[in-house]
């Protein structure tokens, strides 16, 4: 098989065979196919697209490029949750304990933050002592004992995606439905859970800015998950402003704890109850999604989910006292307020700009190997729809580097739009696709 013929075929809009897709993925993962040929094929796919069957074969080949985790030592139906990436998205830290408190084993592999989106692994590491690298047996033992464990994704899971994602990032080929589907689903299918709940973000802080594309992405991923024998359900959710008020690492974990105490922002609470309710249903602990959501509510209001969070933190070597004492988190030393320049209503908060401002305050990294300031980030004091008077605090930026914090505050200020009329607010849960 010849790579030039494969590129030519796709360039002319023809369908690739499973063997051709496999040849590309295997050869590229091993280093036999150079970046320039892989880039040309990615661009041909970008313009000509792939049909359902090709996308499935691409996902399968990428999944099989590395280890497929065997979670059979964990009893029960294991349910995974994945978000397509957002700003202020700390839902895993709320959803994991809620689902686990209702009997769903959650064995989750998460990523680090890159660019404007954060990563659960970084957030968890702001808890003193918390380990995100565990041996396989320890990981499974923890899920069996506590019901929940979250570790960093190893390099052996879908290595083809790791290489291809880096290439897509520098060849303007990220935002293609088939490529996003294969990238996300290859990792999820290799991670070993029996069922998958997907949070597909839609809006100005997401890959999918409009609903039609988000629905198409969600349907494609659900079809592939189900075709692979995993019950897969997608929820399309709003990402037109950051989720909740906190964006960063320590501050997001604190907001997740507050949510589990029943004192969290409405958007995160609703989203977490919906996602965990669907996980409870997918895990066979409720007859319907609605019943799953009722069970999740009970776990929240009774405090059982908060107790589960503390056990999970302790199980991974972290100090569970953080749940009551937030001074144990890394503390910022410098603060900057963002003030409203006029009176009116907050009509827009560009999620992507807030994500970038948080990254630049020290909370995120430009390159994979950059260190991060776990104390840094942004607290939004106003959200879309709030009334503001000139001089009101819109947001507070904090961290340990005063120059970074000042520059980040200037960037954060540009994310807000204030207008004379109250904006229409859409729901956080847009659609469920199963
Ligand atoms: N998240 C992924 O893992 N891959 C993509 O292509 C987009 C979002």
Can you describe this structure?
This protein is an alpha/beta fold. It contains 16 helices and 13 strands. It is 45% helix and 16% strand. The structure holds uracil (URA). Uracil (URA) binds next to helix 9.
Structural descriptors:
single chain, 434 residues, alpha/beta, Transferase, Pyrimidine Nucleoside Phosphorylase, Chain A, domain 3, Pyrimidine Nucleoside Phosphorylase, Chain A, domain 2, Aldehyde Oxidoreductase, domain 3, 3 domains, four-stranded mixed beta sheet, four-stranded antiparallel beta sheet, 16 helices, 13 strands, 45% helix, globular, binds uracil
Can you describe this structure in just a few lines?
With 434 residues, the protein is an alpha/beta fold. The chain has helices at 3-11, 18-30, 35-48, 52-63, 91-101, 120-124, 136-146, 159-169, 177-190, 211-227, 250-260, 266-282, 289-301, 304-315, 351-363, 402-415, and strands at residues 79-83, 106-110, 148-152, 195-202, 231-238, 246-248, 334-339, 344-349, 377-380, 387-388, 393-399, 416-419, 429-433.
